[in-house]
Amino acid sequence: MKKHIISSLIAAAVLSSTTAHAESIYEVYKLAKQHDPGLRAAAATYRAENESVTVTKGNLYPNISFSGNLGYSKIDGPSSDYSNQSNGISLDMNYPIYSPALGYAVDAVELSYESAGISFDNTEEDLALTTLTEYFNLLIAQSTLQTTEALVKSTASQLDRAKKQYEVGLASITDLQDAQAEYDSVRVTELSARSDVSYAQKALYQRTGREIQSIPQLSKDYPIRLDPTMTVDSLIAKAHRDNKELRILNLSVASAENNVNIQKANGRTPTVSITGSLSRSDNNYSSAPTSMQDGATNTSSIGLGVSIPLYQGGAIDASVRQAVAQAESSTEQRASSLQTIELNIRSLYLELQTAVAQIEAQQQLIRSRTSALEATTAGYDVGTRNLVELLDAQSNLFNAQNTYEQYRYNFVVKKLSLLEATGDLTEDKIKELDKWLIAKN
Predict the structure, then answer these.
(1) What CATH number should be reported for the domain whose range is 63-98+271-307?
(2) H/E segment holding residue 353
(3) Portion of the chain with pLDDT greater than 70, in percent
(4) How far apart are CA 131 and CA 154, in angstroms?
């Protein structure tokens, strides 16, 4: 009997701990990293670009090849009738000792490799922002549902009170119908809130490959303020250095400028190569003329070759002009993206300032509507206020509380967006935010 009780207690404890477990924001992010195919694709591209560097650098070293042959021939004619068994081997080398085009080609693949690395980091950062935004969307949906459920419970209590008062003649049929209508209305709102929670959970499931049912809530003590030392100019300066999209565009411009050098080198500079060969051939004649001797012949050679492009029907100059135009296009695209990034940072900073003021004002609104509900309740109890006014005051308070929570969560999301815009949305920042997320009571 004691064993049965102990095992039951252990099972209950395990079940309780499993149910109470909540997925932290960092855990959800790690799940998303493991599950996201886009991040794996970016990692594979990065590895491929790394190999491209090795492949291209290989052209700067001697190219050595080996060849061999084995054959049999028979001659049957009026003046000669013989056969020959022959074999030969050859070792050939081509070593470009001077080729500006090859040097610029190596620079090109190294730029592509560096760009692929930053692109991988950018994909990781975009995934972090997307995952965290979806995480907070679920928090917002759950907060709205929680507030709506509280409103449903309170409205049901008022409906029950109206029914009892109607039964003893203290309330009119109009009051009862108003209470029923308000209850039905908030029930519809509750169904919509449940649907929003389900959709937010499905979005996280798609992102992480795991059903996320329970997540911590943002602490009431989370600081809703901006760093007083932070300015728009300092944020823009940081974005110029660390924004990953901008860094990729900088490398794109450098690559386009390097392509101009490649086209000029391909069309206007010589290529100097050392060539060499070692070969051996062996013949074994049968009934051949005396001029054809059996035996092996060894041959060795070395040379210096120069290749200079002179004219290709105007293609050389056209290729250079094309590369120059492409470089100009890349420069202008970077300038356009820079304007967009700067505008986004200014907008996010202004939105954060506005959010701080909105949250402070919303706190005051909650206090005011709490007082209004208390006064309306007291007036309803003594008969100076009607049920519709009481229900309106109650709904206003719950709506103010829900809006306050949404403002808080949206403030965090905007801060995360600002970190992403300045290239500072790192795992350390996610872990720092995780400390402000606490399990539900």
Answers:
(1) 2.20.200
(2) helix 315-382
(3) 93
(4) 35
Strand segments (E) across 42-80: 63-76
Domain ranges of the chain: 21-60+99-270+308-438, 63-98+271-307
Q: How is residue 238 written in tokens?
A: 């940081």
**DSSP bridge pairs for 70:** 87
Distance CA 43, CA 119 (A): 9
The torsion angle over the Cα atoms of residues 154, 159, 162 and 166, rounded to 10 degrees, is -170
Rounded to whole angstroms, the Cα distance separating 60 from 189 reads 70
- Note whether 75 and 232 are within 8 A (CB): no
Lookup: tokens for 234 = 């300092």
Q: Tokens for 404, please give them.
A: 């306050």
Residue 373 in contact with residue 397, Cβ under 8 Å?
Answer: yes
Q: Which residue shows structure tokens 């950062």?
A: 125
Name the band, by pLDDT with cuts 50, 70 and 90, for residue 9: very low
Q: What is the pLDDT of residue 440?
A: 66
DSSP 60: G
pTM: predicted TM-score of the whole model, two decimal places: 0.83
Q: Work out the number of other CB atoms within 10 angstroms of the CB of residue 157.
A: 13
Report residue 151 as tokens. 């409103």
Q: Any idea what DSSP says for residue 271?
A: E
Fold observed for domain 21-60+99-270+308-438: Outer membrane efflux proteins (OEP) (1.20.1600)
Express each pLDDT in 124-148 by its tens digit. Answer: 999 999 999 999 999 999 999 999 9
CA dihedral 49, 245, 420, 193 (to 10 degrees): -90
The residue written with tokens 């997925």 in the block is 23
